[in-house]
Amino acid sequence: MEVLQAASQLEAEGKKVLHMEIGQPGAPVPAQVRSAAQSLLDTGKMAYTPAKGLPELQQAIAKHYSEHYGVEVPLERVMVTTGSSAGFNLAFLAGFEPGDRVALTSPGYPAYRNILKALGLEAVEIEVGPETRWALTGEMVAKVHKKTPLKGVLVASPANPTGTMMTPEALKELSQTCEANGIWFISDEIYHGLAFGQQEETALKFSDKAIIVNSFSKYYCMTGWRIGWMILPEELVRPVERLAQSLYISAPHLSQVAAVAAFSATQEYEQIKAGYGRNRQLLLERLPQIGFDRLLPVDGAFYVYASTTAFAKDSFEFCKGMLQEAHVATTPGIDFDLQRGHEYLRFSFAGPEADMALAMEKLEDWLNR
Known about the structure:
alpha/beta
């Protein structure tokens, strides 16, 4: 977000900045999603909804799991949230007590660590690397748990910042290891729908005890609508519902109505995804030509996590120079990985195709200056 602020300052000065820093879809939501929202606006009647969400949205989410994953989800286990951020807050508050330890991957999404700290929980960051395709394994969790017990494990697949995915077999092994050891397993599936040549699977297929957090932000292009959902184990349904009633009352009525319509716009969303696919292919071809010869597997989401060691020892300064001189905004890796992040940066390829191509040209010119 600080990179975005600096980029905005350059834009205020009249410079054109090519944005590859923020994980936000560049495409607008489909017309039928906007139309559903407009129809509600025209009535002038927006109100609180049940804390767990509009029944029609709960039904649409349950239907999605049946059709996409072959998993039947009872409606009472579906919880609509104010984005995935609220989902994580609710999961952490309902599942843990202050001082509990929750394992995360490093590199990983920094807000996990920050939310846990704010709630008095301990984030246990476990380094992952190429030997496991940058994924957490049951063996790694069991080893840490044996030394000092864990109360939770949180993983994302596809992951941020790496874009790597766990195989269904790896996800099964990890989720079942957690269940066998009495550890809450939280599966961040916010980038589902954005897989490229890999099979994505929900942790629900392997464990009824898994806590699923998802959102309409990424595949459905609804970041600013702040709407997401959870699938909860039975024993957490009422605790989460009570917390949500006290903290949020309900997710925005307007966003919930729009989200129902989003499930009917698959054709448009697949066209948007195809654009990400072309951007992905462009970066996979151009970045090695430019000199980024160490890229992590780009299985899903819309990120490339790349080593900067061929150019600089400090990716923060490297990204700063790239922004100020080439006007290409990227995200340095230090927030994602406190130990190794100074050697990496993240490119987001969620923007317009023309911008991605121009960014590669400007980056090459800057490196060859």
